């Protein structure tokens, strides 16, 4: 079978000069064309090498597409356009003709003038026929073998429309076309008796939605026998949806998929491709309109049914105008800015972006607008045509051809070698290695030319990567700056060397790294140093465990020469010891105190676990070495290697025994006469006793069935006791730590240790020595810790208690008392302990409140507590803050039925203490406590002259007059104090009262405020006469005080007293009529004789208050009347509004409201518009509430019932439109069968409550914002003091109350 004459054979032949790769021009600026992706890769690679490792997660794709210009064809396009105004042309495509010469020129000038321009082309699968569609609607068929015209079809579709698409199907006798009217037609070719004919059938009419793109499923040669090809599937894209239909065996629609909302100028695109999915190959339809690509998998079931399954969609940020498959995993898209995007479908990743501006794509706008036939197309189709380029893009067999105005371009996928070479040509070696590694691991996208077998693929790519590594190294050495700062050279090689190391290790080619590459890098001193330093991260990560002797020697010299000893130590402990020069390494480690590396070399290289510990006697002042040695001993005894790993299993027991033998040595190897016995254990104890004992404790945990180890354990314990007991070199804390360690071991159930009990007694005597005051807290804490871990079983408790009391170890005493449940004695421990005496109340509270203690134990503690209560200033403060709760718990903890004489006495005692020592906290206590007796409390407060508390208690008792008298007496005392101080101040200082203390005035203000608040609070339940008895004495007192200070020329004091008097008048004006207040003032003999000037301000202030209140009353009345009128008007409008049913059938039975012509039925219409038969409502029990027969209240069944469309049960509390304002009963009356039906509407009388409720709902919906009535109500209930009395203002005659206007209401 011959191949398609489009592009497949054009590239397979060597086109020589006629096929020019655009890449030769493009490669130099490939980075700029791809835009952000390449720059991002460079930045990522640079960041990776700075970390001295290569980030394997960086994705590099390189140049995926090869863009080639068909030079010969492009030249022929231009010349043919100049020479011939013809409909179309065709070029030679045989492999023998490599010059791409013009082979056929189909049509003439007459054809062009008659049919117009070619608007669509299609070639059948065997390349023998060509279908051409024209701008004026004709279709022609040509024989490509000889250029003969076979058919001219002019009546396949309605005249006056251009052909937008014409496509062959897999059946050579069947084709489809699409015209500018949006219709799709099937063309069936026939040949009978030598006569060629064509039958046309409309598949989709443009009147149902204009189709602007069609795509039949055409199978490649390998899938011609696929079962789905028998259905001749056709995909059609209209302006609103996608359709997939089958032409065979009969016309059938298999799927319809609507678009999402998109730009009306977006062009629909369709593309079929056979894709392997779950070991099956099935066609996938990719379609888009706008920026989203959808994928539909089409499968044929065994039953013959075709299933269309939606796959994951692809979201882009551009408007797509062309969509093509280049293989089963890769799509090529062109957006409205003529940017080409290569997209990997499985990962939805954009692999490359190219600019097609130089191609100058040809658009099909003239044909979509049907200008050749008069432009009779819809506006929507004309908008789509602005971006349509369907006939300028053609894909086949992994190649895509783009037709420009003066040239033809072809896009193909590069093979893997070309993609790598393209990056190397641009000297992007890091990206080339990253891309090659993705080929090696099989993670690359759009791969062409690699083996399917994994081993063969990796072998081929590995060879290529080795080539890149050599070229990269040579390039780095050649480009290295010969002069300049050393930092510049180091940075240059830091960008190169770690990459070389990383990829050599990834390829498992350490031999290549340490021989050929290192031999080249060592020529440059800077490169050599960077190389050696870069090895550290790989060695520490255990990616590189073996070095050649030469490199190991250079590594030691470089790190040692540059002072990088910590890095050197990290490398040594991770390297294979066989690659180390042990003598050299040990020497360097000893000289530089690399203890970890030294221990590792001795352990791994010589199986010597004892020599590293022999430095013990000399590390006493080296904390780092001492800590490491403790950890090393712990690891050896636990079977773990130091600093990492595990000791070989066959050496674990041997190592443990060696360590124990070392620890219990009597003398060191190089001992002197002055050396003490057991130097190693002694040194470790002096270095850190607690940590060394912890190491032994963890080791002893594993000694259960090992007889030899148990012997070592007992031996070490004996040595510890011999060294530390009676040795002044060890502190009490160290000795206590030893016996704590022993107590823990002895307390174990499987203990095998033996310790003489006399030693514990000896330690006890040592710790509890009363004559030694040094380290008292430390000794007590050590002994307490010893007891807590089980050491109490080793002591005589009675003797221990006696010694603890002598030594003043009160925490030890508490421990013993707690153990014997003698909780009352613990009280004494807290009281005697100066450091914890403040915690006694917390202890009492916890003991009495927590469960677990018996009633007898709690009672004993209570009795003990009461014996120790002493009244002093500390006690009263603590009682007020804490003890009240504790004393109350004493009462609660008593057994039921017991006599409680302490209840009142305790609270009254507390009250008396507060009166004496904390009178400022007395009122707070009286407000919060409810357990005192009222009469006794009044007597106590009167005794101590706590007038505020007395007044509160009298008011609580109900004696208002008594409370008022106490407060008034307090006020008079304050006034007397103020007057007396003023008198003294006038004698000693100047006349304007500067000597009066501000504290007296502040106390006076507080007293006036208290009594005013009291009168205001008490007047709520009193009559008019009782109110006057309260307020008038207060007013008289305040006015009399002004007379007393008048003669002293005290301007400041007089102003303060006037202000306070105005405050009293302001408060009393809410309860006492103004005439009564004026009359009371005038009854004073002074003012009754005509001296009213002094009270002029008071009277004018009362008049201002009257004017204000009168204006406020009038304004409020007007507002309320307006609101009432507005509400009633809307209520009347809602009630009298006519009801209009939504439909003429009952919403329950769904029958016409006039079911029978000869009977009268009552009908109920609700305000919501629903209509029902009365009988239907009665059956559904939709009566709401209880009412008489005439006042029956109905509910709308559909709105309020759970059976209705809105759901939810109907309740009286819910307000909705389901109950009408006027429930209308309509009675249909029919006098005879021919008479016209008359209806009589009767409005049922609704109850007032129901109407008010529904009207209020409507008012609330219309009235947006709070009503003025609610605002005024809220103002009237605020907690401000009633009455507004202002001092007289000079211009008060034109006083006006300014209020905001009512809110605007939308009708």
TrEMBL record:
SMART domains per record: RING (SM00184)
Source taxonomy: Eukaryota, Metazoa, Chordata, Craniata, Vertebrata
Stated family: Belongs to the VPS8 family.
Signal peptide: none
Annotated GO biological process: endosomal vesicle fusion; protein targeting to vacuole
Keyword Cell membrane among record annotations: no
Protein name: VPS8 subunit of CORVET complex
Gene3D superfamilies, A to Z: YVTN repeat-like/Quinoprotein amine dehydrogenase, Zinc/RING finger domain, C3HC4 (zinc finger)
Keywords for this protein: Metal-binding, WD repeat, Zinc, Zinc-finger
Keyword Zinc-finger on entry: yes
Stored InterPro entries: Vps41/Vps8, Vps8_central_dom, WD40/YVTN_repeat-like_dom_sf, WD40_repeat_dom_sf, WD40_rpt, Znf_RING, Znf_RING/FYVE/PHD, Znf_RING_Vps8
PROSITE patterns with a match to the protein in the record: WD_REPEATS_2 (PS50082), ZF_RING_2 (PS50089)
UniProt-listed SUPFAM superfamilies: RING/U-box, WD40 repeat-like
Domain RING-type: 1146-1200
WD repeat residues: 111-152
UniProt GO molecular function: zinc ion binding
Superkingdom of the organism of origin: Eukaryota
Cellular component terms (Gene Ontology): CORVET complex; early endosome; HOPS complex; late endosome
């Amino acid at each position: 079978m011959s191949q398609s004459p489009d592009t497949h054979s054009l590239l397979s032949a060597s086109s020589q000069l006629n096929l020019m790769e655009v890449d030769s021009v493009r490669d130099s600026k490939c980075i700029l064309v791809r835009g952000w992706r390449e720059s991002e890769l460079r930045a990522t690679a640079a960041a990776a090498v700075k970390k001295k490792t290569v980030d394997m997660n960086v994705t590099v794709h390189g140049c995926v597409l090869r863009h080639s210009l068909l030079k010969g064809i492009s030249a022929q396009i231009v010349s043919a356009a100049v020479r011939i105004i013809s409909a179309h042309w065709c070029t030679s495509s045989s492999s023998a003709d490599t010059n791409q010469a013009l082979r056929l020129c189909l049509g003439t000038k007459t054809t062009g003038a008659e049919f117009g321009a070619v608007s669509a082309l299609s070639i059948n699968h065997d390349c023998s026929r060509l279908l051409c569609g024209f701008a004026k609607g004709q279709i022609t068929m040509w024989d490509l073998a000889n250029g003969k015209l076979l058919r001219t079809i002019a009546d396949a579709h309605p005249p006056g429309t251009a052909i937008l698409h014409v496509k062959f199907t897999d059946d050579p006798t069947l084709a489809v076309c699409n015209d500018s009217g949006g219709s799709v037609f099937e063309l069936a070719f026939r040949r009978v008796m030598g006569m060629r004919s064509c039958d046309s059938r409309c598949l989709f009419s443009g009147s149902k939605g204009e189709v602007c793109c069609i795509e039949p499923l055409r199978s490649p040669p390998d899938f011609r026998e696929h079962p789905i090809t028998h259905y001749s599937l056709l995909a059609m894209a209209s302006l609103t949806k996608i359709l997939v239909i089958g032409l065979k065996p009969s016309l059938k629609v298999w799927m319809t998929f609507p678009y999402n909302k998109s730009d009306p100028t977006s062009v629909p695109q369709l593309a079929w491709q056979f894709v392997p999915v779950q070991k099956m190959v099935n066609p996938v339809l990719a379609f888009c309109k706008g920026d989203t690509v959808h994928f539909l998998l089409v499968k044929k079931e065994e039953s013959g049914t075709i299933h269309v399954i939606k796959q994951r969609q692809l979201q882009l940020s551009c408007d797509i105008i062309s969509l093509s498959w280049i293989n089963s995993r890769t799509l090529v898209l062109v957006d409205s800015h003529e940017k080409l995007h290569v997209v990997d479908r499985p990962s939805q990743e954009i692999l490359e972006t190219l600019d097609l501006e130089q191609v100058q794509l040809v658009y099909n706008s003239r044909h979509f607008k049907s200008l050749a036939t008069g432009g009779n197309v819809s506006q929507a189709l004309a908008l789509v045509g602005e971006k349509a380029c369907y006939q300028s893009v053609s894909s086949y067999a992994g190649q895509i051809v783009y037709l420009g105005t003066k040239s033809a371009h072809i896009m193909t996928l590069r093979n893997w070698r070309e993609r790598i070479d393209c990056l190397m040509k641009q000297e992007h070696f890091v990206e080339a290695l990253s891309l090659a590694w993705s080929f090696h691991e099989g993670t690359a996208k759009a791969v062409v030319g690699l083996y399917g077998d994994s081993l063969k693929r990796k072998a081929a790519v590995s060879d290529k990567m080795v080539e890149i590594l050599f070229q990269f190294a040579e390039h780095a050495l050649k480009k290295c700056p010969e002069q300049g700062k050393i930092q510049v050279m180091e940075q240059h090689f830091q960008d190169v060397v770690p990459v070389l190391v990383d990829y050599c290790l990834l390829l498992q080619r350490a031999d290549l790294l340490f021989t050929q590459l290192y031999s080249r890098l060592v020529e440059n001193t800077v490169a050599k140093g960077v190389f050696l330093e870069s090895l550290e991260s790989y060695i520490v990560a255990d990616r590189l465990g073996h070095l050649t002797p030469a490199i190991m020697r250079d590594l030691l010299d470089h790190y040692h020469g540059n002072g990088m000893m910590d890095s050197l130590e990290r490398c040594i402990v991770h390297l294979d010891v066989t690659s180390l020069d042990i003598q050299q390494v040990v020497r360097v480690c000893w000289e530089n105190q690399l203890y970890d590396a030294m221990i590792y070399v001795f352990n791994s290289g010589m199986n010597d676990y004892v020599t590293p510990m022999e430095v013990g006697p000399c590390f006493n002042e080296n904390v780092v070495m001492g800590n490491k040695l403790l950890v090393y001993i712990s690891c050896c005894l636990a079977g773990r290697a130091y600093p990492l790993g595990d000791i070989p299993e066959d050496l674990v027991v041997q190592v443990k025994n060696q360590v124990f033998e070392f620890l219990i040595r009597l003398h060191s190897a190089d001992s002197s006469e002055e050396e003490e016995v057991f130097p190693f254990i002694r040194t470790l104890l002096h270095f850190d006793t607690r940590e060394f004992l912890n190491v032994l404790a963890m080791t002893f945990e594993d000694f259960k069935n090992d007889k030899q180890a148990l012997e070592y354990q007992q031996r070490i314990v004996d040595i510890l006791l011999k060294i530390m007991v009676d040795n002044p070199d060890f502190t009490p804390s160290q000795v206590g730590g030893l016996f704590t360690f022993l107590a823990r071991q002895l307390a174990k159930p499987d203990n095998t240790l033996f310790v003489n009990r006399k030693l514990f007694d000896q330690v006890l005597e040592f710790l509890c020595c009363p004559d030694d005051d040094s380290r008292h807290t430390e000794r007590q804490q050590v002994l307490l810790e010893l007891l807590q871990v089980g050491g109490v079983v080793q002591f005589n408790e009675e003797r221990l208690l006696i010694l603890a009391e002598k030594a003043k170890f009160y925490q030890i005493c508490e421990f013993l008392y707690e153990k014997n449940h003698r909780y009352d004695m613990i009280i004494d421990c807290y009281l005697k302990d100066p450091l914890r005496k403040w915690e006694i109340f917390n202890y009492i509270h916890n003991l009495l409140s927590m469960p677990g203690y018996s009633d007898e134990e709690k009672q004993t503690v209570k009795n003990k507590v009461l014996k120790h209560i002493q009244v002093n200033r500390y006690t009263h403060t603590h009682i007020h803050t804490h003890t009240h709760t504790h004393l109350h718990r004493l009462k609660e903890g008593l057994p039921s039925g017991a006599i409680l004489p302490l209840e009142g006495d305790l609270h009254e005692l507390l009250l008396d203490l507060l009166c004496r020592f904390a009178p400022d906290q007395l009122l707070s206590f009286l407000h919060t406590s409810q357990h005192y007796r009222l009469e006794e409390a009044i007597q106590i407060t009167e005794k101590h002259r706590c007038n505020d508390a007395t007044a509160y208690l009298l008011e609580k008792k109900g004696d208002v007059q008594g409370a008022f008298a106490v407060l008034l007496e307090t006020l008079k005392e304050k006034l007397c104090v103020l007057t007396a101080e003023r008198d003294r101040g006038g004698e000693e200082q100047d006349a304007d009262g500067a000597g009066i203390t501000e504290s007296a005035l502040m106390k006076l203000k507080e007293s006036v405020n208290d009594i005013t608040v009291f009168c205001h609070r008490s007047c709520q339940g009193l009559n008019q006469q009782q109110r006057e008895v309260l307020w008038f004495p207060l007013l008289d007192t305040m006015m009399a005080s002004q007379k007393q200070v008048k003669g002293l020329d005290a301007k400041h004091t007089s102003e303060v007293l006037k202000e306070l008097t105005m405050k009293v008048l302001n408060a009393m004006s809410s309860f006492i009529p103004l005439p009564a207040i004026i009359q009371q003032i005038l009854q004073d003999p002074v003012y009754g004789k005509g001296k009213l000037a002094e009270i002029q301000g008071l009277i004018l202030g009362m008049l201002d208050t009257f004017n204000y209140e009168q204006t406020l009353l009038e304004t409020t009345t007007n507002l309320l009347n307006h609101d009432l009128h507005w509400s009633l008007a809307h209520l009347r409008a809602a009630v009298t509004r006519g009801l209009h049913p939504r439909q003429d059938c009952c919403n329950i039975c769904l029958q016409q409201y006039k079911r029978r012509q000869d009977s009268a039925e009552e009908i109920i219409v609700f305000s919501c518009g629903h209509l029902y038969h009365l009988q239907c409502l009665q059956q559904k029990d939709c009566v709401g509430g209880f009412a008489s027969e005439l006042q029956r209240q109905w509910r709308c069944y559909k709105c309020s019932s759970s059976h209705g469309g809105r759901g939810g049960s109907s309740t009286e509390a819910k307000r909705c439109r389901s109950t009408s304002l006027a429930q209308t009963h309509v009675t249909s009356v029919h006098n005879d069968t021919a008479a016209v039906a008359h209806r009589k509407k009767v409005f049922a009388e609704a109850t007032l409550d129901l109407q008010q409720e529904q009207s209020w709902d409507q008012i609330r919906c219309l009235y947006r914002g709070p009503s003025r009535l609610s605002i005024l109500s809220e103002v009237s209930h605020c907690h401000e003091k009633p009455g507004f009395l202002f001092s007289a203002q000079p211009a008060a005659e034109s006083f006006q109350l300014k209020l905001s206007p009512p809110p605007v209401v939308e009708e």
